[in-house]
Amino acid sequence: MKELMLGNAAIARGAYEAGVRVVASYPGTPSTEITENIVKYDEIYAEWSPNEKVAAEVAIGASIGGARAMSCCKHVGLNVMADPVFTVSYIGANGGLVFCVADDPGMHSSQNEQDSRHYAKASKILMLEPSDSSECKEYTKIAFDLSEKYDTPAFIRLSTRVSHSQSVVELCERKNDELKDYVKDPAKNVMMPANAKKRHVDVEKRIADLVEYAETSELNTIENNGAKIGVITAGIAYMYAKEALGDKVNYLKLGMVYPLPEKKILDFAASCDTVYVIEELDPYIEEHVRALGVKVIGKEAFTLLGEYTPAMIKKAVLGEDAPESAEISENIPVRPPVMCAGCPHRGTFYVLKKLGLTVSGDIGCYTLGAVAPLASVDTTICMGASVSAALGMAKARGDEFAKKLVSVIGDSTFMHSGITGLIDIVYNKGINTVIILDNSITGMTGHQDNPTTGRTIKGEPTKQVNLIELCKACGIDRVVVADPFDVKNFEKVVKAETEADEPSVIIAQRPCALLKTVKYTGHCKIGDNCRNCKLCMKLGCPAISVRDGKVFIDETQCNGCGLCINVCPFGAITKEEN
C-alpha cells in the first residue's frame, strides 16, 4: 500500500517498520511531527522529555538495554544533546540507535542557520540525508541496520523542506525486532579515561570501515546522462538541482554524508569536464571534494545564506534565467508574525513596555514581544538563557540595573533549561526577577504537553510539576501568581517584585487562547465614547486597527478575550456576545 506522507511522518513510519521500541524527543520545528506521528504506533513507547539532552540519554539507555531507539530534535536541539551524543559515539550501540536532526535553512522558525553535518564529522557518527519522504522512510530503516552492524549511533539529517514536504511512501510490515541481550560490559559502556582510550581505537576503525562501505553503498548513486557537467549534491538540494537541470548534467547523489566516499567522488569527477557542488548552508561536501584534489565550483557560484531555489541553480550552472515563482498581479499586503488574538503574553509585554523595563527574553511564542508595537524584548539567545543572561547583566551593571530588569520564560522552556539559571541567581546572591509565562502548554511548536501540564505525549494523566513549589525549592522566597490580563494588578506586582532586594518569581498564569479548554466567547466593540487615544493599539492585537482615522475592532478576528477592555481608560470598549 502507498500513502502520501510528510517527510517527518515517513521517518516515524520507518522507525515503526524498523522495529523501534523507544522514542524520546523534545519538540522543535521542523522536527516536531516525527514524534507526534510516532504516538500513532502503540508498539512504540514515546515521550516528550524535559529537554533534548534528557531525550538523548533516554534513547541511549534504551539502546544499551537492547532496544532499537530514536531521539529527534531540531538543529539547535542537537547543541543541547551534544554531550551524551559525543560520548555514545565511543560506547556504540547494542540495539540500533538513531538521532534525527532537522536543520532550518532560511530560519523559518529558528534563531540561527546551523549545518548539523559538522556534528557528524566532529562526533564521528555516520549520517544519512534523505531527499524526499520515500527516502526518509527507507533511510531510517537503513540507519538502524547500519547502527547495529557497525556498533555505532547514526544520524539522519533533515531540512525544513524535506520534513514538511509530501511525497509517496510505500508502507511495509513492522520488523519483529527482538530485544538484544543485555550483557554487563563496563569496558564498553563506562566511559572513563582508561576505557575511552581503547574505544577510540574502535571508533577510528569503524570510520575506516564505513568509508569503505560508502564507496559501494546504494545510498551514494551516480546518474550518468552523458553530460560534460557533473553535480555532486545531497538532500533537498538534489531535488532542486533535478528540477533546474534535468538530464543536462550528471549527478553524484550522496545519501550518506558522513563519512563521505573518496574513490567514487574521484571517479565521478574524472568523467566530467566541470563539476559543481550544490549544497545548502556550509561548504561541507565541497571542502571534502577539494581536499581530494578535485577542482570544483561551489560557494563562489552559490551562497552560504538561506535556502536554494531551482532558478538560482539554473542560473549558476546553465546561465539560464528562470522565474523564481509565479507572479501574482494583485498587491498582497505584508503579514509580519504576530501573537494570536487573545494571546496571554500580550498583557505581560504591554505592562513591561509601559514600565520601561529591560527584558531578557527566551525562545517561544513570546519572542514576538520584541516586535512593534510591544517592542519589549531586549535579548534572545537560546533556551533558558533569559534567566542566566539576566544575572550576568545584573552582575555587570549592579543592583540598580537589576531592579529595572526582568527575565521572561515560558513554562515549557523553564522546565527545559531555566531551572538551573534560577538556582544560579539564588546561589550567587542575585536579586533578579523572573517572569514565568505559564500558558499551560508548549505553544510555539504546536501545543505539546510538558511536565507542567499533567499529561504525557499520549494524553495520559501524570504528575504535574508545581511551579510555585519548584521555585521555592530552588530558594526563591518571593513567588507570586498573577493574571497578565488584569493589567492594573499585574503592573503593581511587577513593580513590587523588581523593587525588592532579593530574587523573585512572577508566574504570569493564563492559558493559551488556542487551547480547546479555553472558551472565550463573543467579540469586543468600540463605543461612541471612544476618545481615539489609541492606547489599545499599543497591544498589537491583530483584531484592532485604525480605519479612516478611527480605532476599529474586527469581530471576525476578535475572540472576546477582553484584554483591550482592561486597557481602555475611558470604558469605551465593551463585549458583545455573538
Structure overview:
About 35% of the residues lie in helices and about 20% in strands. It is of the alpha/beta class and about 575 residues long. A seven-stranded mixed beta sheet has the order 3-2-4-5-7-6-12, sandwiched between helices. A six-stranded parallel beta sheet has the order 15-14-16-17-19-18, with helices on both faces. A hairpin with a 2-residue loop joins strand 21 and strand 22. Helix 14 (about 345-355) packs across helix 19. The longest helix has 24 residues, at about 195-215. The model has no long low-confidence stretch (mean pLDDT about 95).
Note the topology.
Layout (H helix, E strand, L loop, with lengths): L1 E5 H11 L4 E4 L6 H7 L6 E4 L3 H13 L4 E6 H17 L5 E7 L13 H7 L2 E3 L4 H17 L4 E6 H5 L1 E5 L15 H4 L3 H24 L3 E4 L5 E5 L1 H11 L4 E5 L1 E3 L4 H8 L3 E5 L5 H8 L18 H9 L26 H11 L2 E4 L15 E4 L4 H13 L1 H4 L2 E6 H17 L5 E6 L28 H7 L4 E5 L4 H13 L4 E6 L13 E4 L17 E4 L2 E4 L9 H5 L5 E4 L2
Parallel strand pairs: 2-3, 2-4, 4-5, 5-7, 6-7, 10-11, 10-13, 14-15, 14-16, 16-17, 17-19, 18-19
Antiparallel strand pairs: 1-8, 6-12, 9-11, 20-23, 21-22
Q: What form results from the Cα inertia axes?
A: globular
Q: Tell me the Rg in angstroms.
A: 27 Å
| CA-CA gap between termini | 47 Å
Major beta sheet summary: 7 strands, mixed
Low-confidence stretches: none
Number of strands: 23
| Order of strands in the sheet with most strands | 3-2-4-5-7-6-12
Beta content comes to 15-25%
Helix and strand content put the structural class at alpha/beta
Put simply, the count of helices is: 20
Mean pLDDT comes to 96
Q: Estimate the helix proportion, in percent.
A: 25-40%
